[in-house]
Design goal:
417 residues; alpha/beta; Rossmann fold; 2 domains; eight-stranded mixed sheet; six-stranded parallel sheet; 14 helices; 16 strands; 36% helix; glycosyltransferase; Glyco_trans_1; Glyco_trans_4-like_N; D-inositol 3-phosphate glycosyltransferase
Length: 417
């Protein structure tokens, strides 16, 4: 791949002593969208600016207004190339760039920016266009996958009989787009193996999305209530209904309350389910919240419940761990990388409300000493996912250097007294 050494010649990268890079991040979903992929792309962009690089982001416009302008994310200024987008009405917020214009738009942005490296965050539309056009221009390409086709099935309106065929086509398309990249990454080793299995790719790097742990503070005060928290999109694959059914199986004396933070197409259905189950007075749907309100929610909670079966990492779970919350999560996809039985929480059999209830009860009935051990376990395990390690690894990939995937099992940390 060509190294466009003239593209960002001003200054020196203070972290490496090398010249700063001009980076173009391509995303099908980006802030103000609220989901893990958009959150990661935003943190990646801001983190690279903070390290002295020039960062451009190409993503669908969040409204009918489109064009190029400056945006501030995480306190850092980036140049946003917002593409003309359409709303996908089966989904509650999704907007997508026009697929039949993506190559033309990619060529236009690439020729204007002249980046050293292109880093696309999914293969669907933006990544496809950027990878085709960047390859023509011999620009280094890095691809990251946050996507499972199964996550979007309920929004395609396809009949059940066609869905398996559609998933197969989606994985073939992913293989073609990621095949143009010099390096391919995904957040965990299990997710990397999953991507390799379905696309035929090899050598996929497992690089954690990372978490800015210093933005989340533990709450070591004694609990005054049993509050179970869920944070995320309120959609079918999150299996929030399993959590609500599990609540009905907890002993009444626990007086467990549930707080569901996030919005989505299933909110009204779940409100009706809570009413039908007789627990509506114990379940709060807060909708979307600010970052400060989210940190307050983590402080109020006794435990995070993550019943989702389609997490390629789960930034929410990492944020909860950085807040010293125990976690009860489905034993599915990448969640076992974060939740270790008996150390910082428990894994339950996916889609099984009885097992989820049993694991929640274990946390809520724990002695103060046992509960403190789980909280300390979350802090200890999340230390390996520091976002600075993630940024350093991607910087090396951007420069074409070989990398060793960061070990994210356990890292030592000094716990508070």
């Amino acid at each position: 791949m060509a190294d466009n050494t003239g593209a960002s010649s001003a200054g020196t990268d203070h972290t490496t002593g090398e010249r700063p890079l001009r980076i173009l991040i391509g995303a099908d979903t980006f802030a103000p969208d609220v989901n893990g992929a958009a959150r990661f792309a935003e943190r990646l962009a801001a983190g690279m600016v903070e390290r002295g690089h020039e960062v451009h982001v190409m993503a669908p416009a969040a409204s009918r207004k489109h064009g190029t302008w400056k945006e501030v994310h995480e306190g850092q200024e980036i140049t946003a190339h917002r593409l003309n987008s359409w709303r996908w009405y089966p989904h509650d917020w999704l907007r997508f760039a026009l697929p039949w214009r993506i190559k033309q738009n990619s060529a236009r942005v690439l020729d204007a920016v002249k980046p050293d490296v292109v880093h696309f965050q999914s293969h669907i539309i933006v990544g496809r266009g950027l990878s085709v056009e960047a390859q023509k221009r011999s620009i280094r390409i890095i691809g990251t996958n946050h996507f499972m086709p199964e996550n979007m099935l309920e929004f395609t309106l396809l009949p059940k009989g066609w869905q398996e065929w559609a998933v197969g086509l989606a994985w073939k398309a992913a293989g073609r787009t990621f095949g143009r990249a010099e390096s391919v990454t995904t957040p965990t080793r299990r997710a990397a193996q999953f991507l390799e299995k379905h696309t035929g790719l090899t050598g996929v790097h497992a690089i954690s999305c990372g978490v800015d742990a210093h933005k989340y503070s533990p709450n070591w005060a004694p609990r005054t209530e049993n509050r179970i928290l869920f944070v995320g999109r309120v959609t079918g694959e999150k299996q929030i209904d399993v959590l609500l059914r599990a609540i009905t199986l907890l002993p009444a004396e626990l007086d467990a309350k549930v707080e569901i933070v996030g919005g989505g197409d299933q909110k009204r259905n779940l409100e009706h389910l809570a009413h039908d189950l007789g627990i509506a007075d114990r379940v709060t749907f807060t909708g979307y919240v600010t970052d400060d309100e989210l940190r307050d929610a983590y402080h109020r909670a006794s435990v995070l419940a993550m019943p989702s079966i389609a997490e390629l990492q789960s930034i929410v779970t990492m944020e909860a761990m950085a807040s010293a919350l125990p976690v009860v999560a489905a034993n599915a996809m990448a969640l076992p990388h974060l939740v270790h039985d008996g150390e910082n929480g428990y894994l339950f059999e996916p889609s099984n409300p009885e097992d989820l209830a049993a694991k929640l009860r274990t946390v809520l009935e724990a002695t103060p000493e046992q509960y403190r051990t789980l909280k300390e376990g979350s802090i200890r395990l999340i230390a390996a996912h520091d976002i600075q390690r993630t940024l350093s690894t991607f910087e090396s990939l951007y420069r074409g250097k070989p990398v060793t995937d960061p070990v994210t099992d356990v890292a030592p940390v000094t716990l508070p007294e």
